[in-house]
Amino acid sequence: MACPSSGSRPRTAWGDRRTTPANPPRRPGGPGLRTLRPRFAATAEPGSKPLLFKQTMPAARLFHRAAPKQVDERSDMSDATRVTLPADTNQALGIAQFAVDFMSSDHAKQGDPGAAVLERTNLFHTDACLCGVSALALGTNAPTILRDEALRYPLAKGETGATVFGSAERVKPEKAIVANSSAVREWDSNGTNFGFRPELGHTAGEFGHNDFYPVAIAAAQVAGLDGAAALRGMVLLDEIRGRLAEVFSLKTYKIDHVVHGAVASAATYGAMLGATAEQIESAIGMAIAHYIPFRAIRAGKQLSDSKGASAAISTEAAVLSVQRSMAGFMGPRDIFRNPEAIFRIFEGPGQMFKAVNAVNANTEKRDASPFELVLSRAGDDFAVMGMHFKLGLYEHQSAGALQAAIDLAAKSPALLDNNGENIKNIKIVAYEPAFGIIGDPAKKDPRTRQSADHSMAYIVATLLRKAIEQRAKLPAPSGESNDSWWKALILEPHDYNESAIFHPLTRKLMAKIDFTHGGPDYDAKYPDGIPTGMVITAADGSTHDSGLVMYPAGHARNISADLRDILNNKFRVLGAISGDADAIVAKLSNIEQKSAADIASLTDFHIHNHGKFE
Questions:
Q1: What is the dihedral sign for C-alpha 40, 43, 49, 53?
Q2: Which residues contact 345 (CB under 8 A, 6 or more apart)?
Q3: Which of 337, 345, 333, 214 is nearest to 283 (CA)?
Q4: How many CA atoms lie within 13 A of 366 on its CB side?
Q5: Is 137 exposed, middle or buried (0-12, 13-18, 19+ CB in 10 A)?
Q6: What pLDDT is attached to residue 50?
Q7: What are phi and psi for residue 611, nearest 5 degrees?
Q8: With a cut of 50, which residues of the chain have pLDDT below it?
Q9: CA 499, CA 503: separation in Å to the nearest integer?
């Protein structure tokens, strides 16, 4: 049996000068990768409200993930800052013990992430929650159903429970988690990671999203923990799932990426509730042996509620597995070395299935998993520092095209005149997996929000349609990433409602878009960046070439955008949908400063009800 693979594509080593930022690749007819200067001062615009999120760290540390050192980091990072789990060890138990130690009170073992890590995690949490509460405010289907379901589950006598967004009522923690995680993910607008750590050779490039913070909040509510513990739990969860994404590509085997988050959720929830390492190992074993979702969730002509709820449903199963393990249920042990679990059957040792185009199968007879896992315990080198923000509602693989479109329109605003007639055609070139995920021919005719937000043609056409409509009042371009246009043209929920999806101008622009795969040259540059090029041909025959965009605004390696200012704009837009934006953001921010009582009431705020979105 074989399956298609994007994981077997040729890669170029980081040390190859052809792919380093100092020696950027060039596209025929276009400039090379731009060298961008840092610009981090977050200032409010004249007449605007104060910034919603206070910066306490130098932004150069908070927002920029530097290019990796061209050395093996194993030689210069002390064991005190990280834990290495070799392939020939019980990694499930190792992850479990790492989680227990990370959340412990033993200063020699507990997690000690640097201030930049804590602040970046804080910002991802605020971003995720605002995505969630705005989805509920607009009555989106899956989050509303799962929230109502949670509120129907009464607690048994003596149970503490957890809360759902917009309520103080305590419910079963697994139900609070599935409801809140579904809401967080519904817009597909929260953080993203691509599994890339070349200094250790860990470049599996698996996707992941910052969907799982409700696990840490629910665990803190159940256990009566304060905000500092809750934030540490969030860092722990991101670290485990982020590092797994670097070493094992689930998507290569058409398994949904949420499995890594489920493993991390089991470890984090168990550790925060006082489970033993053996109990957590059992729960991880159950999550992997019993609950493996496939990417059928994200394939097909029109996508469904399952896409947005996949992480939530897998996490619910992981938390239930922890509860059962703590009650005495014995799940499979040593699951990463299990010869018939997903890791070894697809990558060995003792490999049973080989991906299409894979060169060799790992049939070695060895009691090991296919990877070494390296987890950070202290300092600033945590997985979250390489995760990426979305600056509105769009599939992250389209961010390079959005940056290219903004740059070209800002440089040549006449393209926006004449109601789109000045644009003859738009050619977009990108990499796999972007082409496969958002370039499917069926995505040229999206009819649901879930399909529209996974359509390159729709996303780019909608941004250009908004630019054309706002042409007369667009602000002057500002910054090397054109920050002011990112804010003015933010893609928001109503850009994916029925009237927007079938807007005549959007459809006309979509018909002018040709999206092609750039081949090995582009593929080799992912997931370091998201290499994308765009050429707009005007009606007068002139061509406008973006060159290669690698690190668009929001990407962890982007050093030109004023990220905090753009995110504050996003927070205002989503917060205003939900209610009092400033009050909601204050409620959900600066988690480490909150008491246990504050965490207990974290979701107790009113959410405006705008009726059903779809």
A1: positive
A2: 339, 351, 352, 353
A3: 333
A4: 14
A5: buried
A6: 38
A7: 85, -175
A8: 1-64, 68-78
A9: 6
pLDDT for position 252? 93
Cα–Cα dist 261/546, whole Å: 35
Residue by residue, DSSP assigns 311-336 as: HHHHHHHHHHHHHHHHTT----SSGG
The CATH code that applies to domain 59-105+114-338+372-386 is 1.10.4100.10
Q: Do domains 59-105+114-338+372-386 and 396-553 have the same CATH topology?
A: no
Only one residue has tokens 């060895």, namely 366
Q: Count H helices and E strands in the chain, helices first.
A: 22, 10
- 236 within 8 A of 99, measured Cβ to Cβ: yes
CA dihedral of residues 601, 605, 609, 612 (deg, nearest 10): -30
Helices (H), 187-276: 213-223, 227-247, 258-272
What tokens were used for 416? Answer: 């926006």
pLDDT tens per residue, range 37-94? 333 333 333 343 433 444 444 444 444 455 544 434 333 444 789 999 999 999 999 9
The whole-model pTM stands at: 0.86
Tell me the helix, strand and coil percentages in the chain, rounded to 5. 45, 10, 45
Phi, psi angle pair for 381, to nearest 5°: -90, 65
Tell the CATH superfamily of the 396-553 domain: 2-methylcitrate dehydratase PrpD (3.30.1330.120)
- In terms of Cα–Cα distance, which of 613, 434, 448, 420 is closest to 529? 434
Three-state secondary structure of 450-509: HHHCCCHHHHHHHHHHHHHHCHHHCCCCCCCCCHHHHHHCCCCHHHHCHHHHCCHHHHHH
Output b/e per residue, 288-310; b: 16+ Cβ within 10 A. Answer: bbebbbebebbeeeebebebbbb
R_g of the chain, CA atoms, integer Å: 23
Q: What is the pLDDT of residues 410-430, one digit of tens each?
A: 999 999 999 999 999 999 999
Reduce the DSSP state of residue 420 to 3 states and report it. Answer: helix
Domain ranges across the chain: 59-105+114-338+372-386, 396-553
Q: Do β-strands 378-379 and 82-85 pair in parallel, antiparallel, or remain unpaired? A: unpaired
Q: Report the alpha-carbon distance of residue 377 to residue 236 in Å, rounded.
A: 9
CA dihedral 422, 475, 469, 555 (to 10 degrees): 80
Q: How many CA atoms lie within 13 A of 100 on its CB side?
A: 14
Beta strand 373-376 with 378-379: parallel, antiparallel or unpaired?
A: unpaired
| Tokens (6 digits) for 287 | 């999550």
Q: Using alpha carbons, list the distances in angstroms from residue 418 to 304, 315, 410, 411, 539.
A: 36, 49, 16, 17, 10
Which sign, positive or negative, has the C-alpha torsion 474, 475, 476, 478?
negative
Give the C-alpha separation, 171 to 570, whole Å.
30
Q: What are phi and psi of 312, to 5 degrees?
A: -60, -45
Spatial separation of the C-alpha atoms in residues 124 and 190, rounded to whole Å: 7
